[in-house]
Amino acid sequence: MANEDVGQEVPWLDLDEQEAWRTYLFTTTRLKDRLSQTLEQDPRIDLSLPEYEILVRLSESESDCVRMSDLAQRVVHSRSRLTHTVARMEKRGLVARERSASDGRGRVAVLTAAGRELLEQAAPVHVRSVREFLLEPLGREDFLELARILDKLVSDEDRECIEFSTGGRD
Predict the structure, then answer these.
(1) How far is CA 83 from CA 19, 51, 63, 66, 95, in A?
(2) Where are the domains of the chain?
């Protein structure tokens, strides 16, 4: 695919587009860092944002378990990165890995009672951070507008990854 671009003129970003792109990169990276730090620095919680998201996704599933490959897609991790993160969480007793009951070949991540308990402690901390770092600076209307704009970038195949059950909290 890279060879297809050889010899073709690249439509470079103008100054305004460059500034918008850099603002997007900086802001999204900084926001993830701040949300993660809030969870990590609370001694009762000590979760990274990706670990928190894994607990949320497991808690929203019907049986508190999700096939590892599906979970990787939902939390936007490579399979190897997810395996490493889940292994770390398993050592803490927050999740367990088991063979899939449906086919016996695949692996599923299962939310443990300790994982659910920690999620219940972490959720209010996370929600306060989302409000502090996003909702308060933007206001509800702009926050929802931001989601509407970002939704234009979500492919149909990825749409199910951002949907959530009404039973879970974020």
Answers:
(1) 36, 12, 20, 13, 12
(2) 34-154
**Cα–Cα distance list, 164 to 2, 83, 101, 160 (Å):** 36, 22, 23, 8
Q: Quote the pTM value.
A: 0.86
Structure tokens, 155: 């492919």
CATH class label, 34-154: mainly alpha
User: Are 57 and 70 in contact, with CB atoms under 8 Å apart?
Assistant: no
pLDDT tens-digit series, residues 80-115:
999 999 999 999 999 999 998 777 778 999 999 999
